[in-house]
Amino acid sequence: MSSGLSVTQDALQTGLSAAQEILAQNVKSARKNLKQAQKNIGPLTASVQDNIQSGLSQAQVTLQKSAKKAGKSLKQAQGSLKDTRDSVQAQVAQYRRKRRRAKMLFRMGLISGLILMLLFAPWPGSESRRQIVEFWQGLFPSRQ
User: Fold this and answer.
1) What would the pLDDT profile of 52-83 be if each residue is shown by its tens digit?
2) For residue 68, what are the domain limits?
3) Which of 3, 21, 41, 106 has the fewest CB atoms within 10 Å, measured from its CB?
């Protein structure tokens, strides 16, 4: 039995040694591949950074142009609003002038009509005065 055991131990020892050698080779190969990957990633990283920087620069330029256009549009809108406000104010002022003129003409016509009525009345002045007083008292009765 001991010979079978020693043969098994030798076989295991041989297999273990072979596995350790293969593992050492695999570790060495993995390290070599890792170094190569690190070398390859350097230029790729620089390229990615350049692309990102370029994209950011373009985005910044586009945003600046958009901000300028928005500013111009806002100024135009403010100017248009000011023009509209001025136009409305001018129309209101014109309406007020027309309204004042119409009121003045109405009052002048009313006074002219009263004067003409009194001048061409078919009764004497004393009778006209009496009728005016009666009319006025009828509008504002005395408080007795």
Assistant:
1) 998 989 999 999 999 999 999 999 999 999 99
2) 2-139
3) 3
